[in-house]
Amino acid sequence: MTIATLAPAYIEPSRLADAVKNHGFGVLSPTGLAAFLDTPLSAFDAIKPGWNDLPADHFLKDGGRYRRRRHSCFIVEQTRVGQVPHRAHYQPPQYNALHGGMLRMFEPITPHTIAQPAWSTLLLSLAQACSDVKGARPWYVEAHQFRIDTRNGIGRPTPEGAHRDGVDFVAILLVARVHVSGGESRIFEAVGPHGQRFTLGEAWTLLLLDDQRVLHESTPIRPTAAGGHRDTLVLTFRSGGFLEQNA
Of 190, 198, 191, 233, nearest to 219 (Cα)? Predict the structure, then answer.
């Protein structure tokens, strides 16, 4: 049986910041992303293998074994991307009801991935888009490599449900989608009745969200054949510093 999915409404790359200002989010197609970064999509081939070497996420409170991830932190200021010493990931409980309040120390993203030119180009370009929306400033960036697999059945990209991350902006880059159904992106106004739903289906599709205006979630994925998985890179941008446990 073929299951229909809703494709996102792609915008022109030059309109990304305006879409986020006006609607709380914007989606770039793979070709739109290449134009936005002024970088060929083939440049991302160098970072894609990094998703085949992700350790298991041992912090899942639902007991699941469907998520693998790495995590590293950066400060982006003007034309410079600086990696900071490895640190734990923290979210207050009011933003993540399932995993909030925990200090979660994940394995860092590998130096090989971070050294690729496409990596810094992506962070710099997205930081500029964030500055276009809220004004120029240093951006404190947390990078998460995720693989949600279906070896044991259903995989949950957002087991915490619809949520905010407690940052200014969230970028979700689809890296791969292999032998799965589901994984629909859902976006809701933080204050208001409206929402949007669509499925990121093409590798290197980019979704940029204003985390202070909208909530987001991704629905569970199910295997359609052996080896089903969904790979994403999630980048959060926050001004004023990283989220801290005692802040």
Answer: 198
pTM reported for the whole predicted model: 0.94
Q: Are strands 180-182 and 221-223 parallel, antiparallel or unpaired?
A: antiparallel
Alpha carbons 16 and 10: distance in angstroms, whole number: 10
Which tokens sit at 45?
């081939």
Distances (CA, A) of 40 to 46, 105, 204: 12, 33, 11
Measured in residues, the chain has a length of 247
Q: Which residues pair with 68 in a beta bridge?
A: 56, 147
Q: Which domains does the chain have, with CATH numbers?
A: 13-238 (2.60.120.620)
| Chain segment 153-197, per-residue pLDDT in tens | 899 998 878 889 999 999 999 999 999 999 999 999 988 888 899
Neighbours of 79 (CB within 10 A): 9
H/E stretch holding 42 reads none
Q: What is the 3-state secondary structure (H, E, C) of 43-88?
A: HHHHCHHHHHCCCECCCCCCCCCCEEEEEEEEEEECCEEEECCCCC
Instruction: Write out the two tokens for 220.
Output: 């569970």
